[in-house]
Task: inverse folding
C-alpha cells in the first residue's frame, strides 16, 4: 500500500506522542554537561537573589557618601583606611570617617553607601592594604570629589529576587539561562527526561570489524546515533540477528530498557527482510510512502514497545529520520521550525511524477546544484550542503528558477 509523506508523518506523530508524553522529569546537576539545550519540566524558582548580596561594581574604596560631601580638587578629603574586602570575604563593618578598600564582587561593608573607583582617588592606586586577620591598617586615601549614594554598588536581588521565577517549565536551557539557574542557587535542575532509543541495525552484510567477502561497514549505526544524540536522545546501538525469532526475542528484551526502538533495514521486498517478516505477523505496518529516497517505511506497537522501522540504504535511513523523527524531536526540544534558503537552480532537474523527491544539493556561488538521486550515495549525502524537496506532481525544474533549500545540519 502506498501512502503520502503527510499521512505517514501524521501516523508517526500519533504513534510517538504517548512516548514523548510519558517521559516525565529527570533531575540534572546544574554543572551537568547534558544540561545545555534541555527543556525544563517544571517552573524553577530562585533560592538566592541575584546578586546574592550587595557588592562592589569596581575595585576601589567603600565609604559613606556623607563623609565626602566637601571633597574637591583643591580641598581633598583624606580618610584613614579600614580593612580591605576582597571578593569572597565575609562582610566587614565600615567605621564612620574611614574608607574600606573593596574589590569588584566583594560584599559592601555595612555602613558604606558608595564606592569610589581606585583610579578616581587622589593617588590613583591602592597603598598597602590589610585584610581582616592580617594586621592593622594604617594607610590613608584622599578623594577629590563627592560620590553619590549607591554609586558603583550592585544591590542584592536587583536582577532577580529570591523566590522569583528563574525559568518557566518548557524553557530551553541556553548557556545564559544555565548561568541564571546557577546564580540563583539551584544545584539540581528538573528537565524533561531524554528519550532513550535502541537503534537496531540488521543485515548479515554488516560488520564493524574484519570484513568477509560480501560484507560492508555498518554506516547507519554511527550516522543515526550521531543524529539522535545531536537531538538530546540517549542512544544505544545494537545489531539484531537476521532471523525473525531471534529478532522478536531481542525486541522483547529491549522494550523494558528504552522508550523507542528504531530499526534500520530489512523492510522492503527481498526474501530476507527480517524486520518486516518478524513484525508483520505481530501487527506491524509496512507500506510504501510516495517519497524517494525512503519509500519503504514501517512501524509497530508491540505491547509497550514502540518500533519505528526505517529502510536500510544509508541515504534513505538518514532522510527517513530527518523527515519523520527529527521534526518530533525538535518540537520536544523546543527548537524553532527550520527556515529554508532560496537560490536559483544551476541546471535543470527532473523528478518522478508520483513521488515526493528529497534531493541532496550543493550551494556554490549563490546557485544550487542538485545531485544524483541514488540512495546508496552516502558520500554525496555527506558533502551536500542542503536538501531540496520536489513535491508530487512536479516533474521538471528549469535552470535559473528559485529553489527552496533546507539545511540538514540544524
Ligand atoms: N523489489 C524491490 N526491491 C527494493 C525496493 C522495492 O520497492 N522493491 N525498494 C528499494 C528501496 S527504495 C530501498 S530504500 C531498499 C530498502 O531496503 P531495506 O530497508 O529492506 O534495507 P536492506 O535491504 O536491509 O538494505 C538496503 C541497502 O542498504 C544497505 N545497508 C543496510 N543496512 C546498512 C547499514 N547499517 N550500513 C550501511 N549500509 C546498510 C544494504 O547493504 C543494502 O545495500 O530496498 C530497495 N529494494
Ligand atoms: O526509497 Mo529507496 O530509499 O529509494 O532507495
Result:
Amino acid at each position: 500500500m502506498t501512502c503520502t509523506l503527510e499521512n505517514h508523518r501524521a501516523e508517526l506523530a500519533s504513534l510517538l506522542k504517548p512516548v514523548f508524553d510519558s517521559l516525565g522529569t529527570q533531575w540534572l546537576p546544574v554543572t551537568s554537561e547534558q544540561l545545555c539545550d534541555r527543556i525544563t519540566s517544571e517552573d524553577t524558582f530562585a533560592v538566592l537573589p541575584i546578586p546574592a548580596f550587595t557588592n562592589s561594581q569596581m575595585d576601589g574604596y567603600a565609604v559613606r557618601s556623607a563623609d565626602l560631601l566637601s571633597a574637591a580638587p583643591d580641598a581633598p578629603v583624606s580618610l584613614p583606611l579600614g580593612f580591605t574586602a576582597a571578593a569572597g570575604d565575609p562582610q566587614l563593618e565600615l567605621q564612620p570617617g574611614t574608607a574600606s578598600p573593596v574589590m569588584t564582587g566583594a560584599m559592601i561593608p555595612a555602613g558604606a553607601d558608595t564606592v569610589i573607583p581606585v583610579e578616581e582617588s587622589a593617588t590613583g592606586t591602592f597603598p598597602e592594604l590589610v585584610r581582616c586577620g592580617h594586621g592593622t591598617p594604617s594607610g590613608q586615601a584622599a578623594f577629590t570629589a563627592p560620590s553619590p549614594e549607591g554609586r558603583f554598588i550592585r544591590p542584592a536581588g536587583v536582577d532577580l529576587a529570591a523566590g522569583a521565577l528563574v525559568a518557566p517549565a518548557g524553557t530551553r536551557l541556553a548557556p545564559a539561562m544555565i548561568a541564571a539557574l546557577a546564580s540563583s542557587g539551584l544545584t539540581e535542575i528538573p528537565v524533561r527526561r531524554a528519550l532513550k532509543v535502541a537503534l537496531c541495525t540488521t543485515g548479515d552484510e554488516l560488520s564493524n570489524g574484519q570484513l568477509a567477502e560480501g560484507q560492508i561497514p555498518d554506516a547507519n549505526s554511527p550516522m543515526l546515533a550521531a543524529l539522535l544524540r545531536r537531538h538530546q536522545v540517549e542512544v544505544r546501538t545494537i545489531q539484531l540477528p537476521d532471523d525473525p525469532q531471534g529478532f522478536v526475542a531481542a525486541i522483547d528484551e529491549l522494550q523494558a530498557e528504552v522508550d523507542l526502538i528504531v530499526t534500520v533495514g530489512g523492510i522492503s521486498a527481498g526474501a530476507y527482510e527480517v524486520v518486516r517478516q518478524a513484525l508483520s505477523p505481530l501487527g506491524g505496518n509496512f507500506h510504501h510512502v510516495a517519497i524517494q529516497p525512503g519509500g519503504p517505511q514501517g512501524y509497530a506497537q508491540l505491547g509497550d514497545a514502540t518500533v519505528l522501522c526505517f529502510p536500510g540504504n544509508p541515504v534513505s535511513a538518514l532522510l527517513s529520520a530527518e523527515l519523520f523523527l527529527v521534526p518530533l524531536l525538535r518540537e520536544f526540544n523546543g527548537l524553532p521550525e527550520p527556515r529554508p534558503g532560496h537560490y536559483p537552480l544551476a541546471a535543470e532537474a527532473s523528478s518522478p511524477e508520483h513521488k515526493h523527491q528529497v534531493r541532496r544539493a550543493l550551494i556554490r556561488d549563490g546557485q544550487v546544484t542538485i545531485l544524483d538521486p541514488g540512495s546508496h550515495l552516502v558520500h554525496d549525502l555527506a558533502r551536500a550542503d542542503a536538501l531540496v524537496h520536489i513535491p508530487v506532481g512536479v516533474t521538471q525544474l528549469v535552470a535559473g528558477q528559485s529553489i527552496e533549500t533546507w539545511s540538514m545540519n540544524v
Q: What stands out?
A: Residues 53-155 form a domain with the Molybdopterin biosynthesis moeA protein; domain 3 fold (CATH 2.170.190.11). The pocket of LQZAQKY5 (ligand 1) is lined by residues 201, 203, 205-206, 216, 218-221, 264-270, 273, 293, 295-296, 311-314, 316, 375 (CB under 6 Å).
